[in-house]
Each structure stands twice: as C-alpha cells, then as structure tokens.
C-alpha cells in the first residue's frame, strides 16, 4: 500500500501533483473552511503524514489516533497549534516553514506600521464614502515614521528583517529578546533594551515574539499605560500575546494613538469585536506571509518535509529536536 497523506486545506493541484504520483493523497475540499475535528480524527487514524495549517488543533488525540502517523508538516513558522511533547513521545516529526516567509512577513509588518501611522486605511475609506469635500491643513494627519524610535519585541529572523527595513527610514532601533544578539546590533545599529525600557521609549512597538507560556498576555493594561501617548502598537506575531480588552481600553482612553493588528486571540475574529469598531485600529486577517510566491514556497517546503520523513531521511525544518523515529506497526 502507498503511504497515505491527508491535507487539511485545499491547495493548488499543481502543488500536490508530485505527491499524488507517489502516495495516496486526500485533501479537504475547502480553502477557507476548517476541516471538522471529527473528520480530522478519522483521517489521522489512517494517515502516514498530515499537512496542516495554523488553525488546526493537532492535540494528543489526533496524534495518537492511528499507528502510522510519522510527520505533521505545518504550513506556518509557528507551531503552537501542535502538541510537541505528544508528537515526540509517539515518534512523530513536526516540521514548519521558517525562512521562506521572512522577507514577505517583514514587508507586511512594516506596511502595517505605515498604514496605521499615516491612517491610510481610514483615509481610503474616507474617499470611497464621499466624505472628501475640501482640503484642510490637518485632514487625516497621522504620525511621521522617519527618524522615530521603533522597538521590536522578538529579534528572530523576521525581527531582524523588520529592523533592516527600519534603517531605510533612519529610525532609532531598540529591541528586546530572550538573548542579546551582538552581531546583529553591530550590523544593523540596534540597541538592546529591557522590555520596560523599550515600551517607554518607543514611538512604534512592534511585537514579533513567538507565543510561549512566558509571552502569553505579555502586553497588559499596565504595559500600555507605560507607552507614550503618541505610541503605535503593531502585532504581527500571535494574538494571545496581547490582552485584547486591555488594548481596547488603552486605545479608547487615548493612552496610545493606534494599533495595527494582523493577528488576534481568536481567529477568525468576529465582526462585532470591539477593536474593529475603532477607527484608529488597522485590522488584517493574518496575512503576514500571504504573497503568492511565498505561500507556494511554504507549501513546497511542507511537501519536501513529508517526502523526506516517509523516505526515512532527515527533514529540512524539524521543530521537535527530541524527535526519535519509531518503527511503526
């Protein structure tokens, strides 16, 4: 029997064709509707490989449903949707898609910063709604970006690349990370700061930290109160790192000027969410890596990882470094 691969979202036929030539492949028929948990559980019982997306909860129940599962290839850099410990115990490799999306996500992050600072979305809607009746000196005036201080929380590859974008705007760049990066500091002219110092001094606070037990709800009401009243908060990492009620209250109270958000605590976000009612919030549907070129590269990396594991080889981007392959019955 051919190995069985299940894909939890509809992908382009030309992408999965090479897989279909080697393996038995089944794919959820929808691009934007999550596969129901009961169907995912049934598929996991017989799968040798799962190709998943960030919104799929791959818990111990899924990972232990069958005896054949060897790899979960996640179409994302993040992997907080997967129980890594359970995967490692079961000899299941977990792979992600880093590096190929770094520049694309950095572009979107800086674009979100610019859109929020210069009120671009608000201004575009102003024109479309027929509200532009005359020119005035402070019509939809926003905040300058050049020569301001940007504080980046989380200096991974994407953080470094956002910092590189910021140098083109002659920005003063602060960063906070679990560990200092002297080489990056020297190369890009960054300055390390404590978290408290960064939020107090920065005009733009850009969150790019991964979601961990330590970073969950790290942006509280107390943190927002420490920011400049002219500060703008950008989150392109994970929604749960922010207390959304605290952010809403800070924006309504005028404790910060605005927020640009590509991620939310619960996704997709409900249209009635309080943050979406605020004109000083730019909200995007988690599209950080969503360019055609990058998403195709991410899909291909997932396929490469699946093929490597099934062939008994080392995958390109293994997440659970303690993974030890077991002989599957």
UniProtKB/TrEMBL annotation:
Residues 5-320 form the D-isomer specific 2-hydroxyacid dehydrogenase catalytic domain. Pfam families: 2-Hacid_dh, 2-Hacid_dh_C. One of its GO terms (molecular function) is oxidoreductase activity. Its EC number is 1.1.1.-. The keyword Oxidoreductase applies. PROSITE patterns: D_2_HYDROXYACID_DH_1, D_2_HYDROXYACID_DH_3. CDD domains: GDH. It comes from the Bacteria. The keyword Oxidoreductase applies. Keywords: Oxidoreductase. Residues 110-288 form the D-isomer specific 2-hydroxyacid dehydrogenase NAD-binding domain. Belongs to the D-isomer specific 2-hydroxyacid dehydrogenase family. This is 2-hydroxyacid dehydrogenase. It comes from Bacillus salipaludis.
């Amino acid at each position: 029997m051919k190995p069985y691969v299940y894909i939890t979202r509809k992908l382009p036929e030309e992408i999965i064709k090479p897989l279909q030539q080697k393996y038995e492949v089944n794919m959820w028929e929808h691009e934007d509707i999550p596969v129901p948990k009961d169907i995912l559980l049934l598929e996991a019982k017989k799968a040798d490989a799962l190709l998943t997306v960030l919104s799929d909860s791959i818990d111990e129940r899924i990972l232990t449903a069958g005896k054949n599962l060897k790899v979960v290839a996640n179409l994302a850099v993040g992997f907080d949707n997967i129980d890594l410990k359970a995967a490692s115990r079961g000899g299941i490799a977990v792979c992600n898609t880093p590096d190929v999306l770094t520049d694309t996500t950095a572009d979107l992050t800086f674009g979100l910063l610019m859109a929020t600072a210069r009120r671009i979305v608000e201004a575009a809607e102003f024109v479309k709604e027929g509200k532009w009746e005359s020119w005035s000196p402070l019509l939809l005036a926003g905040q300058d970006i050049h020569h301001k201080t940007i504080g980046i929380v989380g200096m991974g590859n994407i953080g470094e690349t956002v910092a590189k974008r910021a140098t083109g705007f002659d920005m003063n760049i602060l960063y906070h990370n679990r560990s200092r990066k002297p080489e990056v500091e020297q190369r890009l002219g960054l300055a390390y700061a404590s978290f408290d110092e960064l939020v107090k001094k920065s005009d733009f606070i850009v969150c790019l930290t991964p979601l961990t037990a330590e970073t969950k709800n790290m942006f509280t009401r107390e943190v927002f109160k420490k920011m400049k009243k002219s500060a703008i908060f950008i989150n392109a990492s994970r929604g749960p790192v922010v207390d959304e009620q605290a952010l809403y209250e800070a924006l309504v109270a005028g404790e910060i000027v605005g927020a640009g958000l590509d991620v939310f605590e619960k996704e997709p976000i409900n249209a009635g969410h309080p943050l979406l009612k605020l004109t000083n919030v730019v909200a995007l549907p988690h599209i950080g890596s969503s360019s055609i070129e990058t998403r195709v590269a991410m899909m291909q990396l997932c396929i490469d990882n699946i093929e490597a594991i099934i062939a008994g080889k080392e995958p390109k981007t293994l997440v659970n470094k303690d993974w030890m392959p077991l002989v599957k019955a």
